């Protein structure tokens, strides 16, 4: 019987990922920050224990601006998770980053508001460095494995996290593009940052589902239906990539994430 603390790798994604875990069982968690989005499923990928959490809930009932990000990250930490893979749907701000392709993001811009985005509300003031928001070790591994299995994955890209649940206006989209950002999403902040606060490695795999409307592609406005269709059509490829990455994650860590709190308080 696998114990929760045997699990050092976590995946936060959509409900379509349940099928890739072998022998999954659910663990109900409570945290000082409330309940996570759903019970956490613990199973295996090619023998490697993995904890899976659907960030929007089992029935996708939590829109991005009300997801309990603190409870989600805290619950995974309590289970012993030290590395998180955070795949997400994303809109492209660059013509060369096409729907159906992946971006292994290397930078993040926060355009959200009102979200609980820290575990350190005092009385001890803690400032955690976030100049490199994604784990460089996991990024390198994800890129290498994508190439080995023949999946197009762009090396780096700035993901701008908008508040949601609405999509961007055309003016906003053009503004983001003019600033040099590559992809757009609604959940990467504060999810990635909260992981850093708990010294958990985090890597983002952005699946491009559409061109954001500021790009002159001739396509109509972004719709939830179209985004969901592209995401669903590419779930098999995303599972293939995750299955390629997870067994190759080394046990030892020597990255910025593992010592994020050194000198922070």
Task: Please characterize this protein's 3D structure.
The protein has helices at 69-78, 136-148, 170-178, 188-197, 224-233, 235-245; strands at residues 9-13, 22-27, 40-45, 48-54, 83-92, 102-104, 107-111, 153-155, 158-162, 183-185, 201-211. With 265 residues, it is of the alpha/beta class. The chain has a single domain (4-259), classed as 3-Layer(aba) Sandwich (Rossmann fold), CATH 3.40.50. Strands 1, 2, 3, 4, 5, 6, 7, 8, 9, 10 and 11 form an eleven-stranded mixed β-sheet that branches. The protein is globular. The chain starts with 8 loop residues before the first strand and ends in a 20-residue tail after the last helix. The model has no long low-confidence stretch (mean pLDDT 89).
Offer a quick outline of the entry.
This protein has 265 residues and is an alpha/beta fold.
Keywords:
Rossmann fold; 265 residues
Per-chain topology:
Blueprint: E1 9-13, E2 22-27, E3 40-45, E4 48-54, H1 69-78, E5 83-92, E6 102-104, E7 107-111, H2 136-148, E8 153-155, E9 158-162, H3 170-178, E10 183-185, H4 188-197, E11 201-211, H5 224-233, H6 235-245
Parallel strand pairs: 1-4, 1-5, 5-11, 6-8, 7-9, 9-10
Antiparallel strand pairs: 2-3, 3-4, 5-10, 6-11
Helix pairs in contact: 1-4, 2-6
Radius of gyration: 17 Å
Sheet with most strands: 11 strands, mixed
Shape: globular
Assign a percent range to the helix content: 10-25%
Per CATH, the class reads Alpha Beta
Domains counted in the coordinates: how many? 1
Put simply, the count of helices is 6
Report low-confidence residues grouped into runs of 5 or more.
none
Cα(first) to Cα(last) distance is 39 Å
- Topology pattern, helix = H, strand = E: EEEEHEEEHEEHEHEHH
The computed structural class is alpha/beta
DSSP strand tally: 11
CATH architectural name: 3-Layer(aba) Sandwich
Roughly what fraction of the amino acids lie in strands? 15-25%
């Amino acid at each position: 019987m696998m114990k929760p603390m045997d699990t050092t790798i976590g995946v936060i994604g959509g409900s379509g990922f349940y099928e890739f875990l072998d022998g999954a069982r659910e663990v109900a968690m409570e945290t000082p920050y409330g309940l996570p989005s759903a019970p956490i499923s613990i199973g295996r990928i090619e023998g490697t224990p993995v904890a899976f959490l659907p960030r929007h809930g089992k029935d996708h009932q939590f829109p991005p601006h009300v997801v309990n990000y603190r409870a989600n990250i805290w619950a995974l930490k309590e289970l012993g998770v030290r590395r998180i893979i955070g795949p997400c749907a994303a809109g492209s701000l660059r013509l060369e980053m096409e729907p159906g392709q992946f971006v292994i993001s290397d930078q993040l811009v926060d355009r959200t508001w009102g979200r609980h985005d820290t575990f350190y509300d005092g009385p001890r003031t803690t400032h955690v460095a976030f100049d490199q928001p994604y784990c460089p070790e996991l990024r390198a591994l994800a890129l290498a494995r994508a190439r080995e299995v023949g999946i197009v994955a762009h090396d780096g890209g700035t993901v701008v996290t908008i508040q949601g649940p609405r999509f961007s206006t055309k003016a906003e989209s053009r503004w983001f593009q003019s600033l040099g950002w590559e992809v757009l999403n609604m959940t990467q902040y504060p999810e990635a940052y909260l992981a850093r606060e708990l010294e958990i490695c985090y890597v983002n795999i952005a699946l491009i589902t559409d061109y954001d409307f500021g790009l002159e592609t001739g396509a109509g406005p972004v719709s939830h239906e179209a985004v969901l269709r592209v995401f669903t059509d590419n779930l098999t490829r995303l599972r293939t990539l995750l299955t390629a990455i997870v067994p190759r994650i080394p046990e030892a860590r020597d990255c910025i994430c593992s010592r994020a709190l050194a000198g922070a308080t």
